[in-house]
Amino acid sequence: MKRSILVLPGGGYAGHAPHEGEPVAEWIRGLGWDARVVEYPVKTRHPGPLQAVQRELAAERAAGYEQVGILGFSAGGHLAGHAMLVKDAADRPDFAILCYPVTTMQASTHIGSRTNLLGPRPSWWAKRAVSLPRLVTPETKPMFIWTTAGDHGVEYADHAYPLGQALARHNVEHDFHVFAEGGHGLGFAEGKPAAAWRELCAAWLERF
Asked: Is the model's pLDDT at 150 over the cut of 90?
């Protein structure tokens, strides 16, 4: 079976963090999956980044991949989750791995991602439309989510927790991990307790 995971680095929808790109794809390849980094458009208004990722998902299916997952960090986590949850999508990933993700555009934290994606003064409806917790349904595919209690760039109480609550409320299969230490943008989190996310994620991927 051909299996692939698309990797979406973070960067606040303003750039791509190198340490969240190719090193992560290389690690995934070591687990027996194909993987590649998607350099989705940045400093580009919605739905540009989402449409770009949807094209990449379609390309993977066209290339014969029977299982296609998606992994994203921070703003890339928002984009990965959005690709999973957006309504009426022709191609969706079979699972998503979200690392310290931005999940809502309605919170007062990490406003930079919102500004880059929606502009400086988005409407309430525009913010709501791209906020992941409200897009979860009982048909949502499995998710693996990790973050840290020390992340004050993307506060877990504003972002990861509401998404986890929505998944639980709709009985969606998910693994959810909050590590006590660590700030934002950790990547592999080497030397920190959060480094355990890789081992946990690798075990979770074995089910696929």
From this structure: no
